[in-house]
Every structure is written in C-alpha cells, then in structure tokens.
Fold this protein.
Amino acid sequence: MFTGTGWVLDVPVIAGFAKNDPVAHAFVRVALEQNATLQLPAAAVATAYVEAGDAADNIGDLHDLPVVVLDALDGSRSVDAGSLLARARDAEEARSDWRALARAHICAVARAREWPIVTGDAVVPFHAFDHRLEVRMLWPRRPPKPTWQ
C-alpha cells in the first residue's frame, strides 16, 4: 500500500489541464503545494490526448511535474483492469464504449492506492466497476453548452 496523500486523475481533469482550465490548474497547484501525488493511469492519459484535441501536447507539462506518477497498464495492472471490465454492472456497455478501458484502469489504480478518483464528469460510471470507490468532482455542475455552438 502507498503511504501519503494522493489522487487518481480522470480523463476530464487531465484534458482540462491541457486545455488550460483554471480549475484544473488550481487543483494541480494545490497538489504541488501539499506535495500530494497525482497518479495518471496510462490508459487515461491516452484517452485524454483525444479529449484535449489541439491542446494535447500540453499533457506533457503535467507529466513533467515532480508530484505526478504515471501508472503503466502492464502485467498485473492489466489483469486488475480487465477483471473490473469483465465484472462491470453493465458489461455490455463496458465492451462497447471505447473509453471503458481507461475507466477500468483508473478504478484499478484507485483501488490499489486506496485514493479517491478526481473527475470532472458527473456521469462517468466508476461505481459500476466498484461501488466502494471514492469519487470527487473537481468542477461544480456546469450549465450545458448551447446547441448552436
């Protein structure tokens, strides 16, 4: 078990940092000040590159911070993530959603570290993988974007 304080970051937080979202940057700054570890599951990082669009290159700035640790999707972690996917409450949705592997990897890391997941997406079904996970919202609910944009 890891000692110390830390959080496991979800795709919207990683992509938000890349897009220079002030709330995501403030969260990272607080982690730096508190010397708290920010765990980045590799599958979440790969998915964040898609979500960040033109700003994806800024994800490298997050990797370079001294409090950031990248969690590889290797041997035992891939077994943990695969097991979570196979046992998800809605296994069909888990198989058909291309982001499901990133979510399962995030959950596997959070379980192993016993750290909360920090997300910006209120509808991500982390509890479908494990109802005991602690999930914290980084942003308050934002109004939906107008459909004309």
Summary: The chain is about 45% helix and 15% strand. Residues 33 and 85 are 35 Å apart (CA to CA). The mean pLDDT is 87. The chain has one domain: 6-137.
